[in-house]
Design goal:
This protein is mainly alpha-helical and 294 residues long. It is 76% helix and 0% strand. The chain has helices at 2-17, 19-39, 57-64, 66-97, 104-112, 119-141, 157-182, 186-194, 199-210, 212-228, 231-236, 248-258, 262-293.
Length: 294
């Protein structure tokens, strides 16, 4: 009797606190994912779910699409430079705003603000900057690199996208690094200083090893955001010029909904999921080992 009462109490607590989140997670994530997986092996479209089995045909078509691989390569380039620049800038900013100077909290807030702006709005803001403000400055001051809009140059448009992504995400990653820096025991730094260690030695021998957990999280989030970026890509470049900035998320969306190749589009999404999951899990596993060593 007591056991049944205890079980019913647990079920009641679960119903109050966990049932709704679990239902939302199943409805928004798990069920759509399984449905999309089913659509990749059938002749399903966006308006009807077919029972006609086609096997791996959609995956074969996806692998044969050169545009798909071009988008993946382009996304790797974007993610690589975003990862390097975002984390480098974020770490430098974190060091700066934890150095103890007056007004550092104000700067923390200012550096974090771009992360609060939605990707679509951010894209339109930077579209105006690249197309009007920088072009005006380039023509007025004779700066060749800014005399034409980067967004209309296939060689520079991807860099424009990288700059916007770095500007948006650096402030958020900065907070993660601030948490890591403030979590380092001050006694270690004080002991190193008394032993004659300079700032570079303290940074390389104490701070960096102790911050490996922060690097793990920051790199993981940067990778995830880099591979899945869509809103900024849409509002800033729309994949142009000449599809030179059509990242993989936009390519998959266009293939499925614009060109109505639902089966192939879903197959590409599954392939993308496998690629991102593999890279992310590998990165976390490698960094976790370094955490133990640190």
């Amino acid at each position: 009797m007591y056991t049944q009462k205890k079980m019913s109490e647990k079920l009641r607590i679960f119903g109050i606190f966990a049932a709704v989140p679990v239902f939302v997670f199943l409805s928004v994530v798990i069920i759509p994912f399984l449905l999309g997986l089913y659509m990749t092996v059938t002749e399903s479209t966006g308006t009807n779910i077919s029972t006609e089995f086609v096997g791996l045909k959609n995956y074969v078509d996806a692998f044969k699409d050169s545009g798909f691989w071009d988008s993946i390569i382009l996304t790797f380039k974007y993610t690589f430079w975003s990862l390097i620049l975002t984390n480098l800038i974020a770490f430098i900013l974190a060091l700066m705003v934890t150095s103890g100077f007056k007004g550092q909290n104000f700067f923390r807030m200012g550096f974090f603000t771009p992360n609060l702006i939605g990707g679509v709005i951010l894209g339109f803001i930077w579209q105006f900057i690249f197309s009007r403000i920088l072009v005006f400055a380039g023509e007025s001051f004779g700066i060749p690199i800014f005399e034409g809009s980067w967004l209309s140059d296939p060689k520079m448009a991807l860099w424009a996208l990288v700059i916007v992504g770095v500007w948006q995400n650096s402030g958020y990653m900065m907070l993660l690094y601030i948490a890591g820096l403030t979590g380092i025991p001050k006694s270690l730094i004080e002991a190193a200083s008394l032993d004659g260690a300079n700032n570079w030695q303290i940074l390389s021998k104490i701070k960096l090893p102790m911050m490996v957990p922060s690097f793990t999280i920051s790199i993981f989030l940067t990778l995830q955001r880099g591979f899945m970026v869509y809103d900024t890509n849409l509002s800033l470049t729309k994949g142009g010029p000449y599809r030179s900035t059509e990242l993989i998320s936009m390519h998959v969306y266009n293939d499925a909904f614009l060109y109505q190749n639902y089966g192939t589009g879903q197959a590409k999404e599954i392939i993308l999921f496998v690629i991102v999951a593999t890279i992310a899990l590998t990165q976390v596993a490698i960094m976790k080992r370094k955490e133990v060593e640190a």
